[in-house]
Amino acid sequence: DIQMTQSPSSxxxxxxxxxxxxxxxxxxxxxxxxxxxxxxxxxxxxxxxxTSTLQSGVPSRFSGSASGTDYILTISSLQPxxxxxxxxxxxxxxxxxxxxxxxxxxx
Amino acid sequence: EVQLVESGGGLVKPGESLRLSCTASGxxxxxxxxxxxRQAPGKGLEWLSIIGIGSNxxxxxxxxxxxxxxxxxxxxxxxxxxxxxxxxxxxAVYYCARSLxxxxxxxxxxxxxxxxxxxxxx
Lengths: 107, 122
Fold this sequence. Notes:
The complex is a heterodimer.
Chain A: E1 4-7, E2 10-13, E3 19-25, E4 33-38, E5 45-49, E6 53-54, E7 62-67, E8 70-75, E9 85-90, E10 97-98, E11 102-106
Parallel strand pairs in A: 2-11
Antiparallel strand pairs in A: 1-3, 3-8, 4-5, 4-9, 5-6, 7-8, 9-10, 9-11
Chain B: E1 3-7, E2 10-12, E3 18-25, E4 34-39, E5 45-51, E6 58-60, E7 68-73, E8 78-83, E9 92-102, E10 105-112, E11 116-120
Parallel strand pairs in B: 2-11
Antiparallel strand pairs in B: 1-3, 3-8, 4-5, 4-9, 5-6, 7-8, 9-10, 9-11
């Protein structure tokens, strides 16, 4: 199975900051990388699929990219509603696997 | 509006069984693949299973293969997860989620239910 490693596991930032979260796969996933946001007590929400395609309704301050074997989620200017936990998921082959999550909280 | 509503969770003892249901509305249920995922208390997300259109194909995560069974009833707009031989480590919130299709293949989970809690404890 493909393993996904996210870093950092947690990050503290302030409103207006730029934040990046990285996800690395143990095998080639052909850019089939999906990002989710989860707030406490809520179900996850899909943010980005296919590495860089924003899901409908997701603000443009969110972006996704790839660099070699690393997949990167960038939030360009943090807003109060962005403080949450973020997960990557490879959608290249079954079983789909998630990263362990990155908790983003307020500094 | 797309809605997915899970039900059937509860407290069971190790070795017992449970059947979860997910009832969908707001979209053409028969035209989508559907997934189960779970989240243990305070832990990350774990994808469990997918069932394709017409119940083909069906895939499972290694952790549940042979113990859990996914099925669907398109006439009832319902997805099911049969959980057998439950273990303490199966304690989690169980979510159903709709597949996001890209060129006919699942490439994400674009709508999720609110989840149902399964607690396995003696």
